[in-house]
Write a structure and sequence with these properties.
single chain; alpha/beta; 8-stranded mixed beta sheet; 6-stranded mixed beta sheet; about 35% helix
């Protein structure tokens, strides 16, 4: 059941800490004084450990208990009341606590968070942290059957008087989506080459309420998605690397009140193309598909929660940026789906290329959609990581979205669920940067420097996408304004080595699906 749901193990609520099924209890809190009532029996062994170990309140500790489980792991959050503390304290502590329990040999773990009112969704965030620690990579599950799971069961102690009745359903759905994201985004470039992503997605949504449509014909790419086709040229000569454009659609019951269009960058491997990534910086570039992984993961949540009143259309641009005799090169002029003449400046700026025409396609659909909002989601720039660090997604709005203060609403949702955002602004300089520099081209795709060495290196790609897709005709000055936001997850998608995070699935669920389930 857990494997079918793409979650690491069975998850359940529990109300009895002395149940013999548990072989470890993990306590996550900022103070053992909060262990009251039925949790009071957990205090003495931790207090006894404090007598000989001053680090108990600072680091995770394993102590012996007389309870049937024998093992008690105390994982302190640290202070929760300072200006800069947020709900991720619970996530971090849960990860450390579960990892320590696993090292001790635990397989059936009870996770305990004593009730407090510090953060409204601390329960969700705590269990999401625990489940992330239990994730097993896709390749390992496929190749090493005896390592396909780290634990048999995770139980969560439910003693909170105001616990959301949908808590477990929502949380496991989010984790299921994050599991899909990790599978696609984290797997190596052969295990998740574009054709294999197609097979994975078709299998995932077979028999569900998600419609799947796939384009695999390079001739169609050249005619309808020419910017994507340019990037796909070199990989197209290798059958196992040939590109895919995967479209997903979900429509909830009842009158549609909101329509989302999600374009995800799915570069299965980024060599840089002819502007090749030299000097050892190519390692980790299989992670350049996390934008598309987000799209698939969010649709997995939709398939499980079945929210009402919302329609979501997704596009996964699955292409390998290879180098070879068919590779596209700087100086080429590509005519985009929107009819814009785009001069290639750097083949390592392929992500914006594979998304631009899909964004144009969705723009055409959005004109007649109910309350539409368009998105591009991508591990797009090193500049994003340089600007805000490795833990934060960056969101920036066009005029209509900014008028709605969308970025601020998304940031607020992310803060509540432990999936944080920073906000950037698309300025006139970003648009000027991409205007054609001669009469040959309308748009310059990129300069020939890394984004991290380019002023406004994470903002200007959003202006390129607006211009190349024709979204510029749907600003606040148009007869048909369309809200559009670009999200750069280059930092928040996760470390390498390490596992992908699933960002920003949780924040999208919090913002768009709350109240619809």
């Amino acid at each position: 059941m857990a494997e079918a749901l793409r979650i690491p193990c069975e998850v359940a609520l529990a109300s009895n800490i002395v149940d013999g099924q548990f072989d470890a209890i993990v306590v996550v809190t900022d103070s053992i004084e909060k262990l009251q009532g039925t949790l009071q029996t957990l205090q003495p062994p931790i207090s006894k450990q404090k007598e000989i170990d001053n680090a108990v309140e600072k680091d995770v500790s394993l102590v012996q208990t007389d309870l049937p489980c024998k093992r008690l792991v105390y994982s302190p959050t640290g202070p929760l009341n300072r200006d800069y503390d947020d709900v991720r304290r619970f996530m971090d502590a849960a990860v450390k606590g579960i990892e320590r329990a696993l090292k001790a040999g635990a397989k059936s773990i009870l996770l305990v968070r004593p009730h407090d009112d510090t953060f409204p969704l601390a329960d969700h965030v705590t269990i999401l942290g625990a489940l992330s620690a239990l994730y097993v990579p896709y390749e390992v599950r496929q190749d090493v059957p005896d390592r396909k799971s780290k634990a048999k069961k995770l139980s969560y102690f439910a003693n909170h008087p105001n616990m959301d009745p949908h808590f477990l359903k929502t949380t496991t759905a989010i984790e299921s989506g994050r599991g899909v994201y990790r599978d696609i985004g984290g797997s190596d470039p052969e295990n998740m080459a574009a054709p294999k992503v197609e097979a994975y997605v078709r299998n995932l949504f077979n028999g569900t309420n998600i419609k799947v449509d796939v384009i695999n014909d390079h001739a169609v790419f050249e005619k309808e998605y020419p910017c994507l086709a340019a990037v796909n040229r070199a990989a197209n000569v290798v059958p196992r690397h040939q590109g895919r454009l995967i479209f997903l659609e979900y429509e909830g019951e009842g009158p549609i009140e909101k329509t989302l269009f999600l374009v995800g960058k799915g570069i299965t491997y980024d060599t840089g193309g002819c502007d090749i990534k030299a000097g050892g910086i190519m390692a980790g570039m299989h992670r350049d598909k996390c934008g598309a992984a987000f799209v698939a993961g969010f649709f997995q949540v939709l398939s499980l929660l079945k929210p009402r009143g919302i329609k979501v259309v997704g596009g996964m641009s699955m292409v390998r940026n290879s180098v070879g005799e068919e590779a596209y090169v700087a100086d080429e002029i590509i005519i985009s789906r929107a009819g814009k003449r785009v001069r290639v400046g750097n083949t390592d700026a392929e992500g914006r290329m594979v998304m631009a025409d899909v964004l144009c396609k969705f723009k055409e659909l959005a004109v007649d959609a109910v309350n539409p909002h368009l998105f591009t989601i991508a591990t797009l720039t090193g500049h994003a990581v340089r600007a805000v660090g490795p833990s934060y997604s960056l969101v920036m709005d066009n005029g209509p979205a900014r008028k709605q203060r969308f970025s601020h609403h998304l940031q607020e949702a992310g803060d509540v669920i432990g999936d944080p955002f920073e906000i950037s602004t698309i300025r006139r300089e970003d648009h000027d940067f991409h205007r054609g520099k001669s009469e040959y081209e309308d748009i310059l795709q990129c300069n020939n420097l890394p984004s991290s060495q380019t002023a406004r290196g994470h903002q200007s790609p959003a202006a390129f996408l607006i211009q190349t897709s024709g979204m510029e005709c749907h600003g606040i000055d148009s007869a048909k304004p369309l809200a559009y936001s670009h999200i750069d997850i280059a930092g928040s998608s996760g470390p390498f080595p390490g596992q992908p995070t699933g960002a920003p699935i949780a924040s999208f669920v919090q913002l768009f699906l709350t109240g619809r389930v």
